[in-house]
Amino acid sequence: MFNKKQKRLNKIIDPKTKKILLMAFDHAVEHGPVVYEGINLDPLRIAKIAHEGGANALIVHSGAAKYIRKYLKKLPLIVKINGRTDLTTKKIQSIITTVKEAECVGATAVAYTVYVGSEYEDKMLESLSHVKKQCLEKGMPLIGFMYPRVDGKNKDDSRLVRYAARLGAELGVDIVKTYYTGSKETFSKVIKDANFVPVVSAGGGMKESEAEFFQMVRDVIDSGASGMAVGRNVWEKENASAILKEIRKIIYGS
Ligand code: FBP
């Protein structure tokens, strides 16, 4: 099982450079399609951008993965195991896919969100233990989306993000994905606290300009992160593949 898992991880973490470039596309579940009016949300379009732009893998839900796999065999897919809609205020994501199902639709890894500090944290951590067991049995890498959700605090509050990232490392996820805290000074502390696991930053909402987003990617990498999982700042743009190639250059340093 260890070899199987390592082979899969080698597709997601570049074995030579240890760099990671992921593209995230679970937004139509998390935020709903209406928020993205006017943007083509066909998962295959997004998968082609990820493939052409040089992403190591694309993060999707199982239905999108099944659809993409019919047409695009090569791109590694990371399948989300839990989820929620934006139509509820409850800060919890429920298990919606098993690791076996993810494997059946061709997943190279699975992803699980923890809302750290939410009133449902206990339930989400308990479910995580079951997901970890399934991953162990299948040799499946696990990406932890370690996202603070504390009433009255910003979700990118650096003290909370440090705690969330460290929790992911302690709980044994293979890669931690968390929010960027807004500065190299604070994000380097996040990386330091979770130093025994690769950490990637989410891209966040749409930036004013491409230049601003590229600067954020540079700052994330300068902070010591292994890479990024980019979403809206890429696939909402017309020249998405070109933008992704630029991001890849920054992350890989070439
Ligand atoms: P972005 O790079 O577009 O920020 O996507 C990262 C991500 O975690 C998605 O995977 C997810 O759908 C979304 O952000 C959730 O955002 P939020 O936690 O702000 O609702």
Q: Can you give a write-up of this model?
A:
With 254 residues, the protein is α/β, with parallel strands linked by helices. The protein has eleven helices and ten strands. β8 (175-178), α8 (184-193) and β9 form a beta-alpha-beta unit. The structure holds 1,6-di-O-phosphono-beta-D-fructofuranose. The site of 1,6-di-O-phosphono-beta-D-fructofuranose has 13 residues, from α2, β7 and β10.
Which features characterize this protein?
254 residues, two-stranded antiparallel sheet, alpha/beta, 11 helices, 8-stranded parallel barrel, binds 1,6-di-O-phosphono-beta-D-fructofuranose
In short:
This protein is α/β, with parallel strands linked by helices and 254 residues long. It contains eleven helices and ten strands. α9 (210-222) runs parallel beside α11 (240-252).
How many helix segments? 11
Radius of gyration: 17 Å
- Characterize the overall form: globular
Q: Tell me the β content.
A: 15-25%
Q: pLDDT below 50 for ≥5 consecutive residues: which ranges?
A: none
First-residue to last-residue Cα separation? 34 Å
Q: Work out the oligomeric state of the chains in this entry.
A: single chain
Overall pLDDT score: 97
Largest sheet: 8 strands, parallel, barrel
Helical fraction: 40-55%
In total, the number of strands is 10
Largest sheet strand order: 1-2-3-6-7-8-9-10
Q: Provide the structure class.
A: alpha/beta
User: Helix-strand pattern, N to C?
Assistant: HEHHEHEEEHEHEHEHEHEHH
